[in-house]
């Protein structure tokens, strides 16, 4: 089956690119242009007509990529036309009339590239991450994965496990033969090395996932302290309803921001107070749950009321900034004990010291991402497989010590399998759907 799709964004634009991949790709170009195929990978200007008629759709650039030297590994073509919805629709309609041609599913071109051995699974995921990147740090991370940094490391560790497995299976196949002492030492040395590598990779504070998904900041505090106003100010738009009525915010309101190149998800939460209202109580429970999940907490209080409840005191830890709002109402100097807390005095109403607060947030982000150079895990899928691999490897070491080689070999096979599933070295059909469905159509 030959697939086709618009690979550029929908809507009016200067250029639209339609991508075609499959056995009928050459036939599609010939029927649309009524001319021979252009030279491989050389742009050619062609008039593009409707199938079986001489009616002109548009004039554009044709590119021909014969397989296997193409993105998908199959015969592939790209047609560059003017970015008009009418032009794209007419072109799609014409291609759909050709036998064995259908519209591509989301991510199907990249899925073909993976299945045909053009890219590994990590690179396929990084393509999706690069397309959806909104900040500089997200772009940098996607590029690092595309360049094979993670895949090379995981493949290296997998090769070490396979070598150990070969030695262990030799012991199983020839039980009467004693393995040379240097081989037994090599098994121990290699398994310990892989184990330490896995522990180091997993001890990354989940920075890779935070870069990909967004650094979570929760705005918390009592009612009417200015939490919603702060969210609106940081967003430069009215995201949350602001009212003098206490308890206006009942649910969690989120917005995605780019702060100094770092992806951030800021959540405005319900005011924390004693309440008999069942809906408000649920909102407060959500606030406390969001506080537990947050990478950084902004505890917003009024300058004229700095008496903290036990709940608020519990939130003021090393991952919190105390934001004392309504500085314009402050009549005296703040308590010396409060000065010891990581805090900033602001007035949202008068736009005072907001820059100081943003600087504190930026510094916190930089401290969290300071080890991003060594990050290899960018998705929960990677982490789960590495954790499983580590567990099986620990089990292998225990069984190996008591020379239970039959059972130890099975743990080693499972450990190797989980490492392979990260880069797609084993049958991973069950996870392909969820990965490639995140892509846009045409990629």
Describe this structure in words.
Helix 4 runs antiparallel to helix 5 and helix 6 packs antiparallel against helix 15. The chain has 16 helices and 12 strands. Helices cover 46% and strands 17% of the residues. It is flat and about 85 Å long. The protein folds into 3 domains: 103 residues, 2-Layer Sandwich (Gyrase A, domain 2), CATH 3.30.1360.120; 142 residues, Four Helix Bundle (Hemerythrin (Met), subunit A) (Up-down Bundle), CATH 1.20.120.430; 158 residues, P-loop containing nucleotide triphosphate hydrolases (Rossmann fold). By secondary structure, it is an alpha/beta fold. It starts with a strand and ends in a 7-residue tail after the last helix. The strands form 2 sheets. The protein has a 6-stranded mixed β-sheet. A 6-stranded mixed β-sheet has the order 8-9-7-10-11-12, sandwiched between helices.
Our estimate of the beta-strand percent is: 15-25%
Helix proportion range: 40-55%
Overall number of structural domains: 3
Distance between the termini: 17 Å
Write down the CATH class of the largest domain. Alpha Beta
Mean pLDDT: 83
Which secondary-structure class do the elements indicate? alpha/beta
CATH homologous superfamily of the largest domain - what is it? P-loop containing nucleotide triphosphate hydrolases
Order of helices and strands: EEHEEEHEHHHHHHEHEEHEHEHEHHHH
Structural Rg? 29 Å
Task: Tell me the number of strands.
Answer: 12
Helical region count?
16
